[in-house]
Design brief:
254 residues, alpha/beta, Rossmann fold, OB fold (Dihydrolipoamide Acetyltransferase, E2P), 2 domains, five-stranded parallel β-sheet, five-stranded antiparallel β-sheet, 8 helices, 17 strands, 30% helix, 30% strand, elongated
C-alpha cells in the first residue's frame, strides 16, 4: 500500500508515518508533503498513491484546494483537530477522519475502514470541490493550533487565544486565561488559520478582536492597542498610520 502524507507540522508528519508503518506492515510512505503548493506540484508529476493521509489546514490554505486543482483518485483520510468541520464534512464525502491528537488505535481503525470500502468505493463519486466549498463558507473561529508539551500534543482553539506574538524569533501565544505557549508556526501561517477574527498589527503581533480593550493615538499618527489581559513586551502593540483605517474597519466588524 503506497501512502502519501500531507501535513505541515514535521513532528506530526513523522509521528503519523511511524504509526502507519507499525499498524500496516505492508505500507510504504512514498512522500510527505507540507503545503498546498508542494502537493499540487507532486501530484502533477508523480503517480497517484493508494491512500492519502491529509491535514485539513495547511500553512498556505485548505488541503481541499489540492484536490480541486488536480485529479486525485486516491481516497483520503483526513487528520484534523476541527471537530465541527469533520463531523459535517465527512458523513457522505470522505473515507474517514482522525481527530488530533491521533493514536495507534484511531489510525488502525481508519485503515480498517479503508480496506473494507476499497473494493466497493467509487472514487470518482467523492466530490472534494463540494467539501472545499463547505469549509470555505465556515468561519475559522473554532480552528485549533497544536501545542507540544512533553509527550502530549494538545489542540488549543484559536477562539481561546488572545494574542500571537514573536519573541526572540520564536512564535508564542497567550490565552484569555493567561496561559502562554510556544507554537511551531509562523505568523503568516497563523494569520491564514485564524481568518478575520484576528488582525496582523505588524510583523510581531496577531491579535484577537475579543482581546482588544481600546486603541489610542500614538506617536507619528499611529494607534496604540491596549489589551484586556495583562501583557508586557519590549515593543508596544501599534498600528502604523497607513493601516489605521483598515484596522478600525476590522475592529468594527466591517
Amino acid at each position: 500500500m503506497k501512502i502519501v502524507i500531507i501535513e505541515d507540522e514535521k513532528l506530526t508528519a513523522d509521528d503519523l508515518a511511524e504509526i502507519i508503518l507499525k499498524v500496516e506492515h505492508g505500507a510504504q510512505i512514498i512522500a510527505s508533503l507540507s503545503s498546498v503548493k508542494e502537493a499540487i506540484l507532486y501530484f502533477h508529476k508523480n503517480k497517484k498513491p493508494d491512500l492519502i493521509f491529509s491535514d485539513i489546514q495547511l500553512g498556505d490554505g485548505l488541503s481541499f484546494e489540492i484536490f480541486k486543482a488536480v485529479a486525485v483518485s486516491a481516497p483520503i483520510i483526513f487528520c484534523t483537530a476541527y471537530d465541527e468541520y469533520a463531523l459535517n464534512a465527512f458523513k457522505t464525502n470522505g473515507i474517514d477522519y482522525i481527530l488530533k491528537p491521533f493514536t495507534k488505535k484511531t489510525i488502525a481503525n481508519a485503515l480498517g475502514k479503508y480496506k473494507e470500502l476499497r473494493n466497493n468505493l467509487s472514487r470518482s463519486a467523492i466530490n472534494y470541490e463540494t467539501i472545499l466549498e463547505l469549509f470555505g463558507n465556515k468561519n475559522p473561529k473554532d480552528a485549533s493550533v497544536l501545542v507540544y508539551i512533553k509527550d502530549k500534543i494538545i489542540p488549543v482553539k484559536t477562539s481561546d487565544i488572545a494574542l500571537f506574538y514573536i519573541e526572540n524569533e520564536i512564535t508564542h501565544f497567550i490565552t484569555f486565561n493567561q496561559h502562554r505557549h510556544i507554537v511551531n508556526k509562523a505568523l503568516d501561517e497563523l494569520e491564514a488559520i485564524t481568518g478575520n477574527n484576528f488582525y496582523r498589527a505588524n510583523r510581531q503581533y496577531l491579535i484577537n478582536r475579543r482581546a482588544i480593550k481600546d486603541a489610542s493615538q500614538y506617536f507619528h499618527r499611529k494607534l496604540l492597542v491596549n489589551l484586556l489581559i495583562p501583557f508586557t513586551s519590549h515593543e508596544p502593540i501599534t498600528i502604523s498610520k497607513v493601516k489605521v483605517t483598515e484596522f478600525l474597519n476590522w475592529l468594527s466588524g466591517n
